[in-house]
Design a protein that fits this description.
The complex is a heterodimer of chains A (229) and B (377). Chain A is built from eight helices and ten strands. Chain A has helices at residues 43-50, 73-83, 99-110, 115-124, 140-152, 170-185, 197-200, 222-225; strands spanning 3-14, 17-28, 32-36, 58-63, 66-67, 84-88, 158-162, 189-193, 205-210, 213-219. Chain B has 377 residues and is of the alpha+beta class. In chain B, a hairpin with a 2-residue loop joins strand 9 and strand 10. The chains are: A alpha/beta (229), B alpha+beta (377). Chains A and B meet through helix 2, strand 6 and helix 3 of A and helix 1, helix 9 and helix 13 of B.
Chain lengths: 229, 377
């Protein structure tokens, strides 16, 4: 499989704090990677750099042949719109827009809006009857599914999920993880930050961080994957 | 999607934006009322100043009264012909005057010969007890000043025997004038009567005109009249013209100062509201940027929101302002100020500009870093 993400000697410093120290790894297209580690180990910083939300102090972060480190502000904006689908722990939906409008917002910043397509994306995540609901009227799991629909609407090359089940109860967590499994089966490339080893085991590989360094890469076993089937 | 987002932004921040739109409506109301007043003030002031009396004088060169008769006189027909030839719809009244000093009941007094029916138009501020115009049967009628009536114990319908040199005229008092000035010591008779008494047929001392319009328009008319009467002096009465110009300048300065002050205060109010709104929207902007929204597109959205607020505030305020200006006109001038529809676009443009100036904090949202916003949470 072709390599979609190449990370080479990536460093990020916030003043005297070294968030990432010489991290290197590759991700193939269609691969699901779980990024694990304790708080403050650099997981979110890595996701932010790969998603073009932050820039590295040094090193390379190449996504779909684009070195994120070399992009200026407008280049990063285009990169985020065209190549990345974000899913956040806090969902980050716009509170005064309905579910379908939140999905259309991503379309609007990417190119043109298509309400029908946005509705289909919501139907796909099981929210056909919640299309015109405001985020405040949706449960946590439903809000996260809206966020998944929004992340997928522009057919991104890479899905970056930062603890997507961190704010969900067990039932909603299962629903959302099933969605990720479907996305993986369809060939999407997923980088997911998680603290949950059970979820980490569902990924093709687990990359573990400690103190800004990549300390371990572990392939998952099929037994764990079957836990959510 | 742009308009849909704009509508949702406006609805979503209703509470905060209500404060901003109230400030803009109030500002637009006062500004449009003041602008309407400013546009109409010249006409209104001119009308007001016309009540002070004549503002244009035609006189012989170096005119002065020596002894009991005027040293210099003018031809009544020449002046009348010139006024007729230089036609101007702004001429509200015109009257010739012949002044002589005669006496009545052994009391010397100034006799002013004029067209009595022109006096109320020429001097609208004068008050009268009785009638201005003589009836056809009263060809020998006169108007007497308040002081003359007091001194000679005259009332309406009293008889008055005016004496000038060896001639006399028996007149009937048809009205008593209260002018509040030197005219209260005078007796006004028909011009022909005065000319007959003075033995100056067809002659006048000077002519007075009441011309409406701006100071510049009055000067222009005076110049045209002067060209038609090269032998005489044609001059605007300087005190009235200058007072009018001076007052107009002061009122205009006051109006412009108030508009600037109110606009600055409103911009500061909008600035405060928008600063609070900008803080609330940091997360939305961080998210929009994370989704690939460019700074230009996001800031344009917020600026459009502010522009709509300004336009709506300007429109509503302009309607209210026209009503306010009508009320102000009624209170100050006793009649409504005419509505000027060009106030609408002017007020709306001004309010949009004020709203955009006050929306400076929203422009700073362009500098929001999504990673920092998400890290704060």
């Amino acid at each position: 499989m072709a390599t979609l993400v190449q990370v080479e000697e990536l460093r990020k410093e916030f003043g005297k704090v070294h968030a990432l120290e010489g991290v290197s790894f590759n991700v193939d297209a269609g691969e699901w990677i779980a990024i694990m580690g304790p708080s403050g180990s650099g997981k979110t910083t890595l996701i932010n750099i790969l998603g073009g939300l932050d820039t590295p102090t040094s090193g390379q972060a190449i996504v779909d042949e684009v070195d994120v480190a070399r992009l200026d502000e407008s280049g990063l904006t285009r990169f985020r719109a065209q190549k990345i689908g974000f899913i956040f722990q806090q969902f980050h939906l716009v509170p005064y827009l309905t579910a379908v409008e939140n999905v259309m917002l991503a379309q609007y910043f990417h190119s043109t809006t298509d309400e029908k397509e946005a509705q289909l994306a919501l139907e796909r995540v099981g929210l056909a009857d919640r299309i015109e609901h405001l985020p405040g009227a949706l449960s946590g799991g439903e809000q996260q599914r809206v966020a998944v629909a929004r992340a997928l609407i522009n057919h991104p090359k890479l899905i970056l999920a930062d603890e997507p089940t961190g704010n969900l109860d067990e039932a909603n967590e299962e629903t959302v993880i099933q969605l990720f499994r479907e996305l993986h089966r369809e060939g999407h490339t997923i980088l997911m930050v998680t603290h949950d080893p059970a979820i980490g085991n569902l990924a093709d590989r687990r990359i573990e961080f400690a103190h800004g360094r990549l300390v371990k890469v572990t392939p998952s076993n099929d037994g764990s994957r079957n836990a959510y089937r | 999607m742009f308009w849909r987002l704009l509508w949702k932004l406006l609805r979503g921040s209703g509470g905060r934006l209500t404060v901003a739109i109230l400030a803009l409506v109030s500002c637009a109301m006062v500004v449009s009322a003041l602008l309407n007043l400013e546009f109409d003030i010249e006409r209104k002031l001119t009308q007001e100043f016309r009540t002070l009396g004549a503002n244009l004088l035609i006189s012989p060169r170096n005119a002065q009264i020596t002894g009991s008769s005027p040293a210099e006189v003018m031809s009544e027909s020449d002046v009348s012909a010139a006024i007729q030839s230089v036609k101007d719809p702004n001429v509200a009244a015109a009257a010739p005057f012949l002044y002589v000093v005669g006496s009545a009941r052994n009391t010397p007094l100034v006799i002013a010969g004029t067209h009595l029916e022109e006096l109320p138009k020429l001097e609208p501020a004068w008050r009268i007890e009785g009638a201005w115009k003589p009836s056809k049967a009263q060809q020998t009628a006169c108007l007497v000043g308040r002081n003359v009536a007091q001194q000679l114990k005259l009332a309406v319908s009293s008889s008055l025997n005016l004496i000038y040199l060896r001639k006399n005229a028996q007149l009937k008092v048809i009205g008593i004038i209260d002018a509040g000035g030197a005219e209260d010591n005078q007796v006004f008779v028909e011009l022909a009567e005065a000319q007959d008494l003075a033995g100056l047929p067809g002659q006048i001392s000077f002519a007075q005109l009441s011309v409406s319009g701006t100071t510049a328009a009055i000067s222009h008319y005076a110049a045209r009249l002067a060209a038609a009467l090269p032998a005489y002096d044609v001059k605007p009465i300087r005190q009235i013209s200058e007072a009018e110009g001076d007052l107009l300048s002061r009122i205009r300065l006051l109006i412009v100062s108030m508009i600037v002050l109110i606009s600055v205060l409103t911009a500061l109010c909008v600035l405060g509201t928008m600063a609070a709104l900008a803080m609330e929207r940091r997360q939305d902007v961080g998210l929009m940027k994370a989704l690939g929204g460019s700074i230009g597109r996001i800031v344009t959205l917020f600026m459009a929101e502010v522009g709509v607020l300004g336009a709506a505030g300007g429109f509503i305020g302009a309607i209210l302002g026209l009503e306010l200006s009508r009320w102000m006109g009624q209170r100050v001038f006793g009649q409504a100020i005419s509505s000027r529809w060009e106030i609408f676009p002017l007020t709306i443009i001004l309010m949009v500009a004020i709203a955009l100036a006050g929306a400076l904090p929203l422009r700073l949202l362009g500098k929001v870093k999504p990673a920092i916003i998400f890290r704060e949470q």
